[in-house]
Automatic annotation (TrEMBL), chain A:
Belongs to the succinate dehydrogenase/fumarate reductase iron-sulfur protein family. This is Succinate dehydrogenase/fumarate reductase iron-sulfur subunit. Residues 151-181 form the 4Fe-4S ferredoxin-type domain. It comes from the Bacteria. Residues 1-103 form the 2Fe-2S ferredoxin-type domain. Transmembrane segments: none annotated. Its cofactor is [3Fe-4S] cluster; [2Fe-2S] cluster.
Automatic annotation (TrEMBL), chain B:
Its cofactor is FAD. Residues 35-469 form the FAD-dependent oxidoreductase 2 FAD-binding domain. Pfam families: FAD_binding_2 (PF00890), Succ_DH_flav_C (PF02910). It comes from Olleya sediminilitoris. NCBIfam families: PRK07573.1 (NF005749), sdhA_Bsu (TIGR01811). Residues 531-669 form the Fumarate reductase/succinate dehydrogenase flavoprotein-like C-terminal domain. Gene3D superfamilies: FAD/NAD(P)-binding domain, Fumarate reductase/succinate dehydrogenase flavoprotein-like, C-terminal domain, Succinate dehydrogenase/fumarate reductase flavoprotein, catalytic domain. The keyword Flavoprotein applies. This is Fumarate reductase/succinate dehydrogenase flavoprotein subunit.
TrEMBL record, chain C:
This is Succinate dehydrogenase cytochrome b subunit. Keywords: Membrane, Transmembrane, Transmembrane helix. InterPro entries: Cytochrome_b-558, SQR/QFR_C/D. The chain crosses the membrane at residues 12-38, 58-78, 106-126, 163-184, 204-222.
Length: 248, 670, 224
């Protein structure tokens, strides 16, 4: 395959940045998208140019490192996958592919396509945990039965990989799906009940302070989420938040 | 220096309890005056950092990723073992201990493994309390499944994302401590050296991967939870960033490196498709619960399948060779990983590989789909003889169990595994070898600890499935927090460690010089060019099957490649920026040294054990003909290598393994 | 409870509550208007009651006005805040791939509804207020002694341009409701396995009510 890539290049956080065109040829349809970028980078290095920086690590869709807004969509046009699982067979020979970093004020660009997602970590620091000591001297794991449906729903919420596609796809750059998933995971489990009030209030407060936008329920996040996290998690967080606000 | 494993006295079942009863403790007020550095934030590092902070130590945690949550533990799929015996199928601490030692081909330290089995049950209690959403049964209790090499169901799981859920549990425990200010988290920081003061590990040198700043960090003890070195093969199931640098720097500062040649080649990975490939993807071992592995019996069918004229699902049962079931009737498709991998290689070497490269075998779910489908039809009172209905019901059940893995497979290979068997082939997955540690998990450098995959201790020559998660969390949550206290109790009056000393200065200078070299070297090839070459040498000559000639060649080829690398590597950009190539250059430089030691270790060990298979050490006759042959008389030891400059100059120290509670036997899965 | 409006979810909740309130109002408005087609007398009776009953005039009417103003002001405030959350926009964005046009353009459909409302107030509400509270005529009748409401309504819908304008206004209302109805329920947390039926109902409401208003306008235009 022969392709034209339009890639966002930005030297560092203070640089203005611009889109740059790169032609690339001899791409196999069996390559993953990131392997295609590896080929580009290798060519750039051997030509003495600066390779394109992008975040990536596990390359099997679970670490949440890779990002990229490809042809106007987070993780590209395919569904339920991350960019590292996107394969070139999705594209047509001769196509022009636009590649941009996640765009959100809360995710400033570090370099090229690499953005700073530590805002997500800070939201988790504010309450994304159950305050139980790691001594191992807790009650037996089977002491509290958990309804299977609740356990499964909690798991589905917990499969979030923290990649930020929800924020990137949202027209408002809202982080509600990310936060909703974490709040839901704990809200659905008996172990999470004790701190439910503080957790949701603190996490939402931190989310707002980080500069994410407001949710307007467009549902783009759910569609683009590589793990298919449901909007129901946002609804659940809304309920949890209101309950907590009335109590607090 | 003689190796002292510091195994406590007494019967094996009491060792850990007695040990805990007699170690020195640090009182809570004094813990506030003690700093601990934890490098790596996977299951081992993350759980250790959280627990140490909770105990009251000041923890500084480091990871090269942008968040601790992205450590590669997250990719572990299948599950975590624990001797809970919830299924009442005969499991016990002893049996988990026994299975692990046997699975490791009798090359692990008994006392460590027993302790691991002992604390395994706490892990499950702990994780449930943290809100880890393990799979449950309809009654609300935890579900289990079985893994390779064992005869009980003791594996706890969360679909095919157990590692993710456990890591997020540890990450949440860390978050709680970061929020409290007890852990200071350094994301996107790479450790580039260990600093020793008066013979003790007292700090590290790091590079800020965003700004390039070289930083000094001091502490009273340093803990490495930096994972394995499978990426020495270039292609592996490890993450792209997984590297040996932290461990290798520790080695260069005096930590012995143990059994580097013990590498696990995982039997069920998606085969290599071309030269562009950057990594290999694992298909969880749990698939072997339901998938049957086969190749065609006849060469004509192999050729027809390769040519696309025969669909694998149309090949008659009688023309298929379910070679694992044939060779190992007792364990069948659930033999341990090393055995399954070698058997696949044996068939493919004989020409029966089923894809274009000849390096793939089938993993087939058709019979499981039929079996489950019939069961479901029976339960629902539907017609069990309606094939279409049974297939549909069966596929739904398989989807519930392995949906995410099947989806992953389909995305990569572009084939639907519900309707055609998966193609799989072994790939490098885990390294049992690592930094040598004693019972306290301390390396041969005082104050320097290694936990999780980074150390060598618990899996011997082969790791059983679902045991890596167990070991990582056991080390971090329940072992290190005790053992490190014993060491730190001497440090309560030391006070803060200054970074303004000549030791820090020298270490920083070395780090800077190396970086300067890379960015200024006028070479012609990218770092990956060398890494791929190294990977080819390793895979072809130090891979699944090893011999004297290949290993000798590998040693000299790696040495030559290393020299070429230092002459001809090209690193674009500067130090003072986000520069992934620069980071990679440092890592590959270390792989190029490790690779040689790896081959040297493999050459030294003239026996076959676990993941280390020497062609010159096999059973020559009898029922076990062709199977790996151990040499307990001469090689029942841990090979711990001391750094002396060039890898070829490394000095071997032997820790003799003693087996008092388990009888050494030929590992039979027949 | 304090500061709830300072949080993103609180604002979203307030937006949803005002929306739900307005949707109930619209339904009520529609119920009375449709009487103008069925029975002019009943329409006159109902209109007179609404126009003169104290609780409606002095309680509900101010609440409604505040609700409308709040909904619009908050809508614009949120839009500005949300724009700030993405300082640099994408060179290429394929919003249609993951969300409906309606959901992405609430500010535009809302803006047009605002324009329509201004016209609607000039047409009906201001004359009404003028008659009742400035002129002081609370009788609700024409000089002929008959109720004036139906007559005034019919009179307004004689002009083609006005009918067309109202129809466009209602189309925007439909577009706004097509996203807004469900969205309001999602915002107050009603999205789970028990609320699947809501989606269907929301479509019926979002299309049915504006279509009904269009029918009324066109009916009067054609019949008088």
């Amino acid at each position: 395959m022969n392709l034209t890539l339009k890639i966002w290049r930005q030297k560092n956080a203070s640089d203005k940045g611009k889109m740059v065109d790169y032609p690339i040829s001899n791409i196999s349809p069996d390559m993953s998208f990131l392997e295609m970028l590896d080929v580009l980078n290798n060519e750039l290095i051997e030509k003495g140019e600066e390779p394109v920086s992008f975040d990536h690590d596990c390359r099997e869709g679970i670490c949440g490192s890779c990002s990229l807004y490809i042809n106007g969509e987070a993780h590209g046009p395919d569904r339920l996958i991350t960019t590292c699982q996107l394969h070139m067979r999705t594209f047509k020979d001769g196509e022009t592919i636009t590649i941009e970093p996640w765009r959100a004020t809360a995710f400033p660009v570090i370099k090229d396509l690499v953005v700073d997602r530590t805002a997500f970590d800070r939201i988790q620091h504010a309450g994304g945990f159950i305050s139980v000591n790691t001594s191992g001297n807790t009650i037996d794991a089977n002491a509290i039965p958990v309804n299977k449906q609740d356990a499964d729903d909690a798991f589905s919420a917990a499969t979030c990989i923290g990649c930020g596609a929800c924020v990137a796809s949202c027209k408002n750059s809202s982080a509600m799906l990310f936060v909703g998933a974490k709040v839901s995971q704990f809200a659905l489990l008996p172990q999470g009940q004790v701190e439910a009030t503080d957790r949701v209030l603190n996490m939402v407060k931190q989310m707002d302070e980080e500069g994410f936008g407001n949710c307007t329920n467009t549902g783009a996040c759910e569609v683009e989420c590589p793990k298919g996290i449901s909007l129901e998690n946002i609804a659940r967080m809304n309920t949890e938040f209101l309950k907590a606000s009335l109590k607090g | 220096m003689a190796l002292d494993s510091k195994i406590p006295q007494g019967p094996i079942a009491d060792k850990w309890t007695n040990y805990k009863n007699h170690i020195d403790l640090v009182n809570p007020a004094n813990k506030r005056n003690i700093d601990v550095i934890v490098v790596g934030t996977g299951l081992a590092g993350g759980s250790a950092a959280a627990t140490l902070a909770e105990l009251g130590y000041n923890v500084k945690a480091f990871c090269f990723q942008d968040s601790p949550r992205r450590a590669h533990s997250i990719a572990a799929q299948g599950g975590i073992n624990a001797a809970k015996n919830y299924q009442g199928d005969g499991d016990s601490t002893y049996r988990l201990f026994y299975d692990t030692v046997k699975g490791g081909d009798y090359r692990s330290r008994e006392a460590n493994v027993y302790r691991l089995a002992e604390v395994s049950t706490n892990i499950i209690d702990q994780c449930v309390a943290q809100g880890v959403p393990f799979a449950r049964e309809y009654g609300g209790l935890l579900d289990n499944r079985s893994f390779g090499g064992v005869l009980v169901s003791r594996t706890f799981y969360a679909a095919g994302q157990t590692g993710q859920q456990l890591l997020l549990g540890a990450y949440s425990a860390m978050n709680r401590q970061i929020g409290r200010g007890k852990i200071k988290m350094y994301n996107r920081h790479e450790m580039l050296d260990v600093v020793k003061v008066d013979g003790k590990a007292r700090g590290i040198i790091t590079r800020n991967l965003i700004t390039g700043e070289i930083e000094r960090h001091s502490a009273h003890a340093v803990v490495l939870g930096t994972g394995g070195y499978g990426n020495v093969f270039f292609l592996s199931t490890n993450a792209m960033g997984s590297n040996v640098t932290a461990a290798w720097k520790a080695h260069k500062r005096g930590a012995y490196f143990a059994n580097p040649c013990y590498t696990q080649i995982h039997p069920t990975c998606i085969p290599v498709s071309g030269d562009h490939q950057s990594k290999l993807t694992l298909m969880s071992e749990s698939l072997r619960n339901d998938g049957r592995i086969w190749v065609p019996k006849h060469m004509k069918d192999v050729e027809a399948i390769k040519a696309g004229t025969l669909k694998p699902k149309d090949l008659a049962e009688s023309d298929r060779d379910y070679y694992l079931e044939r060779r190992y009737p007792a364990f069948g498709n659930l033999v341990p990983r090393d055995v399954a991998s070698r058997a696949a290689k044996e068939r493919c070497d004989a020409g029966y590989g089923v894809n274009a490269t000849g390096e793939a075998v089938f993993l087939d779910f058709a019979s499981a789909i039929q079996r489950y489908g019939k069961e479901a039809a029976h339960v629902k009172g539907l017609n069990e003889n309606d094939t279409a209905l049974v297939t549909k019901l069966g596929q739904e059940i398989i989807k519930n169990k392995y949906g995410n893995l099947f989806q992953m497979y389909e995305k990569i290979v572009d084939q639907d595994p519900y309707n055609t068997p998966m193609m799989i082939y072994p790939a490098v997955h885990y390294t049992m070898g690592g930094i040598w540690v004693d019972y306290n998990l301390m390396t041969s450098v005082p104050g320097l600890y290694a936990i999780g995959e980074a150390n060598f201790s618990d899996h011997g020559a082969n790791r059983l499935g679902a045991s890596a998660l167990m070991q990582g969390l056991a080390d971090g949550y329940f072992v290190l927090p005790y053992t490190i206290g014993d060491y730190l109790s001497d440090d309560i009056r030391t006070g803060p460690i200054s970074t303004e000393t000549k030791e820090f200065e020298e270490a920083e200078k070395e780090v800077r010089e190396r970086i300067e070299f890379f960015v200024n070297n006028e070479g012609s090839h990218s770092v990956d060019y060398f890494h791929k070459k190294l990977g080819k040498i390793m895979w072809n000559k130090v891979g699944m099957s090893r011999n004297v000639q290949g290993l000798t060649e590998a040693i000299s080829e790696i040495k030559a490649l290393r020299e070429e690398f230092w002459k001809d590597v090209r690193v674009p950009g500067t130090n003072e920026e986000f520069n992934e190539e620069l980071a990679k250059a440092g890592r590959v430089a270390d792989f190029l040294e490790l690779g040689e030691l790896f081959a040297k270790d493999a050459l030294n060990r003239e026996e076959s054990c676990g993941g280390h298979f020497r062609e010159d050490s096999v059973e020559l006759d009898g029922e076990q003909k062709g199977e790996a042959l151990r040499d307990d008389e001469n090689y029942a030891y841990v090979a711990a290598w001391e750094y002396k400059g060039e890898p070829s100059d490394a000095v071997l120290h032997k820790e003799q393994l003693e087996f008092n509670d388990i009888e050494l036997k030929q590992r039979s899965y027949k | 409870m304090s500061g709830i409006l300072n949080s993103s979810i609180g604002r979203k909740f307030a937006m949803a509550l005002s929306a739900l309130f307005l949707m109930i109002f619209i339904l009520q408005h529609f119920a009375i208007n449709i009487l103008s087609v069925i029975s002019p007398d009943a329409f006159n009776e109902a209109s007179h009651f609404m126009g003169t009953f104290w609780a409606v005039q002095y309680l509900l009417q101010p609440v409604l006005i505040i609700g409308v103003i709040f909904h619009f002001v908050m809508g614009f405030v949120l839009e500005i805040k949300n724009n700030k959350a993405r300082a640099i926009s994408y060179a290429k964005n394929n919003g249609a791939a993951n969300s409906s046009w309606m959901s992405r353009n609430m500010i535009w459909s809302g803006g047009f509804i605002l324009v329509f409302l201004v016209i609607h107030f000039i047409d009906f509400w201001i004359p009404e207020i003028n008659t009742k509270y400035i002129v002081g005529d609370m009788s609700g009748t024409l000089p002929s002694g008959e109720f004036r409401y139906h007559e005034e309504l019919v009179h307004k819908f004689k002009d083609l341009w006005r009918v067309a304008l109202y129809c466009v206004g209602f189309v925007f209302l439909a577009l706004h409701l097509l996203h807004g109805f469900n969205s309001a329920f999602q915002s107050v947390g009603a999205n789970n396995k028990y609320t699947k039926g809501l989606k269907g109902f929301s479509k019926v409401y979002a299309i049915g009510v504006p279509a009904g208003f269009i029918f009324i306008a066109v009916f009067h235009f054609l019949n008088h």
